[in-house]
Amino acid sequence: MTLARRVPRLRTPEQILQVAAALAEDVRAAASTRDADRVLPHDQVAALKSSGLLALSVPTAHGGIDAPAAVLAEVFRLLADADPSVAQIPQSHFTFLEVIALQGSAAQQDFFYPLVLDGALLANTQVERGPQPVNVDNTTLVAVGGDFVLTGRKFYCTGALFADWLAVRASVNPAGAPNSLTPKAVAFVPADAAGVRILDDWDGLGQRTTASGTVVLDASSVLFELGGTRSATASANLSRYWRDARTHTLHDATRWKLQHIGRYTLSGTKPPRHGQL
User: Fold this and answer.
1) In whole angstroms, what separates CA 115 from the centre of its chain?
2) Are 164 and 1 in contact (CB under 8 A)?
3) Domains and CATH numbers, the chain
4) What does the angle CA 87 – CA 260 – CA 123 come to, to the nearest 5 degrees?
5) Are 124 and 187 spatial neighbours (Cβ–Cβ below 8 Å)?
6) Which of 24, 94, 124, 133 has the fewest CB atoms within 10 Å of its CB?
């Protein structure tokens, strides 16, 4: 995918936080109105892509800064203080950059890191509606000739409408209907690839402008797999903060973290590495 952007290379934590603070102030403007009227933040996400902030975790060997986690957390704090929905959009971007760092081949890293340095946004395409259990993916990744083909339907795909690449979890070459034992893979596919449709059908009570809608994959070919009373007034629209937070807790439940903390305390079992912890 070709990107026509001039993106600065951020080199120090101080520079990163200056850029993030300036972007946050721009994002803050009309954030309440965007939430109230459900106006998607296309301009704000475009500014995020052009800021250089999406490349913070790119390793230094690939031209990035590999910013400390504390710096990345402060960037998210600044953005979330301005508009929680805008801050939510790149969460999965950094999750899948970590996947590329830990599990990607040298060829995959050489391919994706320059794209991210130029402002490419990766988006989550993982969850499916029931009735199947959460550990079963009806979306399939099937070998056809010398290619891999994705077919299925995903939901709650945060930021997909703004993305350049989609990270799709799928069952690999299932023999019959996929089940919990079917091998899985994460496949990366361009958001504008043939057979990909991204629907703006998210209607949650919170995170209203994250574009967390449905992604339909129709035989899409892969490139890679891998306060006080006044705060309750409608005009202030401060309720968007608790609505966003409440929606987040539904998929990032505290009880999951408690289980992992308990296992580590009792048996030393480390928690799994994924973006929900």
Assistant:
1) 16
2) yes
3) 13-120 (1.10.540.10)
4) 30
5) no
6) 133
For 29, the 3-state DSSP assignment is coil
- Reported residue count of the chain is 277
SS3 of residue 71 by DSSP: helix
Q: What is the DSSP letter of 277?
A: -
- Report yes or no on whether pTM surpasses 0.90: no
CA dist 275 and 163 (Å) reads: 18
Neighbours of 267 (CB within 10 A): 8
C-alpha to C-alpha distances, 232 to 28, 98, 240, 242, 246, nearest whole angstrom: 19, 39, 10, 11, 16
- Alpha carbons 261 and 241: distance in angstroms, whole number: 27
Instruction: Render each residue's pLDDT in the chain as its tens digit; 277 residues.
Output: 545 568 999 999 999 999 999 999 999 999 899 888 888 999 999 999 999 999 999 999 999 999 999 999 999 999 999 999 999 999 999 999 998 998 889 999 999 999 999 999 999 999 898 788 888 899 999 988 888 899 999 998 889 999 999 999 999 888 889 988 888 889 999 999 999 999 988 776 666 777 788 999 998 888 787 644 334 445 556 556 656 765 666 666 666 778 888 888 999 998 876 554 4
Question: CB under 8 Å to 103, separation ≥6 — which residues?
Answer: 226
Judge whether 152 and 217 are in contact, CB under 8 Å: yes
Instruction: Give Cα 61 distance to the centre of its chain.
Output: 24
Q: What are phi and psi of 188, to 5 degrees?
A: -100, 125
